[in-house]
# Entry
Amino acid sequence: MKKKLLLLATGGTIASLQGDMGLAPSMEPDELLSFVDKIPPLYQLDSKLLMNIDSTNMQPESWIIIAEAIRDHYAQYDGFVITHGTDTMAYTSAALSYLLQKGSKPIVLTGSQVPMSFEPTDAKRNLQDAIRFACEEINGVFVVFDGRVIQGTRAVKVKTKSYDAFESINHPYIGYVDGTQVTYPFEKPINDNQPLVCDTSLCTNVLVVKIYPGFHPDILDYPLHHHYKGVIIESFGSGGIPILGRNLLPKIEKLLDAGIAVVITTQCLEEGEDLHLYEVGRKIVEKSIIHTRNMNTEAIVAKLMWVLGKTHQPAEVKKMMETPIAYDRAER
Ligand SMILES: NC(=O)C[C@H](N)C(=O)O
# Structure
């Protein structure tokens, strides 16, 4: 049976044309599709333009627009393709993994490093691959890019120009697309065909701070005095914060005392935090901070906004953040 797919276009390089001020998204979804080699027996496709923006301009409110469009059309289609800029695609793929849970259909994000109208370009292949993967019997949110299928909570943009811009971090690739062929390196994930759960309440009062040698503890006064509900600290290596010199512990205690969720992650892309390893990590483990294990920052930001959209109660926030959703974290 032919699959019924919906393409939701949001802009990005894939839809960009050269203007006086540089590349800017302006192509309509039908124009994008005119470049694609159709696989007529496999699918029938409708399209809708949700926004036409550089993904630099994506906001959490834009994630909600995308999620609600999918929710509203969920019953009518077998799969969804979202064309999106690459710069914040990993945030959107993570966010949609929280906003739209369970379900029975694939939601596939793609984009390109070079506009569709340029030659050569990666846009044509990526869009074709995304459409092909959206025909699979699989559920969840995925990024399809340069022939690789990545779980939505595990994609990270690691290159600014090359075609292989995205990697699956701390998680295996779900699959590969080559022409009309989809292969799975491991067992194909089981589609347990559950009803879609759409929950779009978000709290955006979240701050990410990357510490560095010389980071001044006073910076952490800012979230305290500006109604922030969550602070994500990108610490070093296996995880730890300075406890000598510009000691961050007293300020972190103040944040926790004020009921602000403090989340610790690592600046290292691979293998995740292990705060128990070193004294500089253990000191903070004694406090009720939130562990992230091997989650990526994009997923942590989206998950924290989503969790804080439901509760500000510290123990609840910690429990929800530390509970795996959509394969976003693995315990050791
Ligand atoms: N390759 C791209 O799509 C980059 C673009 N600035 C965007 O994220 O919209």
